[in-house]
Structure formats: structure tokens, C-alpha cells
Amino acid sequence: FTDSGPTSPLATNMEITDLLKAENARVSVMNGTYSAGLAAETADYLKTQGVNVVEAGNAQQIATYTQVTFYTGKPYTVKYLVELMKIDAIRIYHVNDPASPFDISITLGTTWANDNPMP
User: Fold this and answer.
1) Which of 44, 65, 80, 116 would bridge with 109, disulfide CB 3.0–4.6 Å?
2) How far apart are CA 48 and CA 117, in angstroms?
3) Cα–Cα distance measured from residue 81 to residue 59, given in angstroms and rounded to the nearest whole number
4) Per-residue burial over 56-74, b = 16 or more CB atoms within 10 Å of its CB, e = otherwise
5) Helix (H) or strand (E) holding 83
């Protein structure tokens, strides 16, 4: 994805939230912290922001930093999540897997548990 603007000429006049809805990316949220219920809480928050969260649960290991992995593209949703959640660019990963049950996976780290904009 790009930090400089739309990746398609058709997206030039569209708001990022409209692009997010158009992509309808399937998002998984995994809790990589010791904060019980953080994935479900974050999933509910992201849903209120228009994100299509299809899974929430616990990660297999503890994570210090929140990371995003995208499997099938969906650049506008990735961009939206990275900006909303203030995820460092070095924590964005791409794994080409068209058979993945979700388009994007977020693993929540202690940075998100300690400093997030959720009410």
C-alpha cells in the first residue's frame, strides 16, 4: 500500500471510510497481551469504525507491538487500520495466501493494551 495517496485513479475522490467499506475486508483480531478480553473489545471498537471483523480471539504468543498481516491485498483497509491504530510501518507484513479465511490479521500487542483510543 501507499502512504502518499490513492492507489487507483477511481479512488481519488473517495473518502478512506468509503474505500474501506467498498473493500469489505475480512479482519481477524488476536489478543497477544495479558489483558483479558482485549480482542473482543477491540473488535467491537473496530466494528463501530466500519471494519468488517470476522474473528476475535487469543494469539498463540505474547506480542510487545501490534502488528498487521495482510493476505489478499485490501490496501485501503490496511492503510486505515495502520493509521487508526498507529502501527509502525515495520510491523506490517504481507503473506500471499488467497485461501486465507480472512484478508487481514491484527495481533494486538502490549503497546495497544496500554495506549489505545477506545472509549
Assistant:
1) 65
2) 13
3) 18
4) beebeeebeebbbbbbbbb
5) helix 75-85
Angle between helices 16-23 and 75-85 (to 10 degrees): 130
State the cell numbers at 65.
Answer: 507491538
Q: What is the mean pLDDT of each run of 10 residues along the chain (119 residues)?
A: 50 84 97 98 97 98 97 94 96 95 98 94
**pTM of the model as a whole:** 0.89
- Residue 1 neighbours by CB under 8 Å, 6+ apart: 7, 75, 76, 78, 79
Longest dimension (CA), the chain: 43
